[in-house]
Amino acid sequence: MCLFASLLLHKQYKGFEDAKAVIESLKNKGVSAIGAAGFCWGAKVVVELAHINAGVLLHPSFVTVDDIKEVKAPLAVLGAEFDHLSPPALVKQFEEVLATKPEFDGFVKIFPGVAHGWTVRVQS
Predict the structure, then answer these.
(1) Side by side, which strands form the sheet with 106-115?
(2) What is the model's pLDDT at position 3?
(3) Are strands 75-82 and 35-39 parallel, antiparallel or unpaired?
(4) Residues 97-119, mean pLDDT to the nearest whole number
(5) How far is the C-alpha of 71 from the C-alpha of 118, rounded, in Å?
(6) Most exposed residue of 12, 26, 33, 60, measured as fewest CB within 10 angstroms of its CB?
(7) pLDDT of amino acid 15
(8) Residue 73's Cα: distance from chain center in Å?
(9) How far apart are the C-alpha atoms of 72 and 2, rounded to whole Å?
(10) Distance between CA 71 and CA 116 in Å, rounded?
(11) Is pLDDT of 78 > 90?
(12) What's the rounded Cα separation, in Å, for the pair 80 and 103?
């Protein structure tokens, strides 16, 4: 399925609303530490979630520097060398912003030789 068709079927706001409900349910059951991983557009969902204890963004898309500025929990950003949605220059800006936040850890790595989507599909 192409990205455009996928985005039409799977809206970010729906992912965000679904994730909020899951987090609330977990907290109601006494879970005290919650992390979230976002792949592609799911990365935008992770940076918008409040009250998580840690997050990881894998080949993120639709995430802005302003989004990263609002993050308040440890965050790892795993980018791709060949990524038109989050090019290495943008991922490096994320790293610069995270470095200004001494209250929590940030980790950024750009994986060489891989393209956007590398964490969920075979790279040739």
Answers:
(1) 35-39, 54-58, 75-82, 106-115
(2) 55
(3) unpaired
(4) 95
(5) 24
(6) 33
(7) 78
(8) 12
(9) 33
(10) 23
(11) yes
(12) 27
Mean pLDDT along residues 50-75: 94
CA distances from 30 to 23, 33, 59, 112 (A): 11, 9, 31, 40
Token look-up 């979230």 returns 36
Neighbours of 101 (CB within 10 A): 16
Ranges assigned E (strand) in 1-124: 35-39, 54-58, 75-82, 106-115
The set of residues, in sequence order, having a beta carbon less than 8 Å from that of 68 and lying 6+ positions away, is: 47, 75, 93, 94, 97, 98
Q: How confident is the model at residue 50 (pLDDT cuts 50, 70, 90)?
A: confident
- pLDDT value for 8: 61
Query: Would you call 76 exposed, middle or buried from its count of C-beta atoms within 10 A (0-12, 13-18, 19+)?
Result: middle
